[in-house]
Amino acid sequence: MRRVERYDLVSPMMPCKDEILAGVDRILSTGAYILGEEVRALEQEMATACEAADSVGVASGSAALYLALQLAGVGPGVEVITTPYTFVATIEAVIRLGGTPVLVDISLDDLNLQAEHVADAVTDRTRVILPVHIFGVPCDMDALQTIADTHGLDVIEDMCQAFGSLYKGRSCGSFGRMSCLSFYPTKNLPGIGDGGLVVCRDNEDAELIRKLRGHESVRINGVLRSGWNSRIDEIQAMAIRVRLARFPDEQADRDRAAAIYDETIPAANRFSGYAPGGGLRVTHHQYWIRVPERGRLEETLRKVGVAYGVYYDPPLHHDPLAEYCRVHGDLTNAETASAEVMTLPIYQALPVDDARRIGELVRKHLDGCGA
Ligand SMILES: Cc1ncc(COP(=O)(O)O)c(C=O)c1O
Q1: With 242 labelled, which of 139, 183, 291, 369 sits at a CA distance of 20 to 30 A?
Q2: Pocket test for ligand 1, best of 87, 157, 189 (most atoms within 8 A of CB)
Q3: pLDDT tens, residue by residue, 41-67
């Protein structure tokens, strides 16, 4: 079997290369290198794509999280309920603001925050629920919004892995007061460097995020909060817009590979969706499976030259930053996910027969485990 890489960032870039180079040429001669027309156009296109009032381009997904949480009033003594099964950036933003991430268990069906644990973790210090649509699978937004409404909390979506995913026919990013996106090059809507976006349900929030990203201070709940440089540049915005125009085609390629894995891997070992016809779309930022004896499958894949991913091992309640978190209840499902989940290659240029062979190796492993 030929070697299969974990990502292919170059092939999908090639059809865009001439357009991006022409864009660079154009921007170089304008002299407007930061926060110009390209950024504003990206913000408008992304607001439309995410079914939101407006959006604000920023330096990274981490910066988006920091600014959105800052505007929601996160600071010392404030709790933010989130998942232990995510990239560390999710909790870093809370901790850098002086707030406390409260980690609650996930569901093994979708690896996302489980609403009943969220409800149980609310205290009079809670200000925000911060769901992460992990690997592009939407969280149960209705259940989380009900909890938020009951307690007067904000929902802020970490949609860094979920651009293009739909929950009940609505775009991820359109549910929270604000939603945070990353354009890191491995994401399914990638830039050619770092970049991020805060998607806003209200225009007023968008205007305040615009101030904070550009060194203007803002009074939030009576407290003056400092701005900082969190700007995005024109070349980055232009390159992201070029990829945005091609997003449906790139998504169709990812869907093709996912369908092959779906055919070969038993439903019990992968995300198999919520109720049929429920308006769900998963963009497969990563295609994840849950397998017993993961180490043995890792060895098999390594031997045949197939790269894979192992996430998030250890989960965040075992990260050194857990010192700054409150762990609510026992996080058994997060432990299981950390021990058993792995991701398979799902990039646009993955040959169909490679996807089939990888799926069959996984199925053989599962048969061998009696799973
Ligand atoms: C779930 C999640 N949150 C936050 C981030 C941070 O995004 P960035 O790397 O653009 O700062 C990422 C991306 O790596 C992510 O996957």
Answers
A1: 139
A2: 87
A3: 999 999 999 999 999 999 999 999 999
Query: 């609403």: which residue's tokens?
Result: 115
Rounded to the nearest whole angstrom, what is the distance from the C-alpha of residue 222 to the centroid of ligand 1?
30
Token pair in block for residue 362: 């996984």
Please give the number of the atom of ligand 1 that sits closest to the Cα of 134: 1
Q: Which helix (H) or strand (E) holds 204?
A: helix 203-213
Task: List alpha helices for 294-351, DSSP H.
Answer: 294-303, 332-340
| Total domain count, the chain | 2
| Whether residue 144 has pLDDT greater than 90 | yes
Q: Is residue 6 part of a domain?
A: no
Query: What's the CA gap between 346 and 23, in Å, rounded?
Result: 29
**CATH (domain of 17):** 3.40.640.10
Report the amino acid identity of residue 250. Answer: E
**Looking up tokens 């644990």, which residue turns up?**
117
* Ligand 1 contact via 60 beta carbon (within 6 Å): yes
Q: Ligand 1, residue 184: give the atom nearest the CA.
A: 10
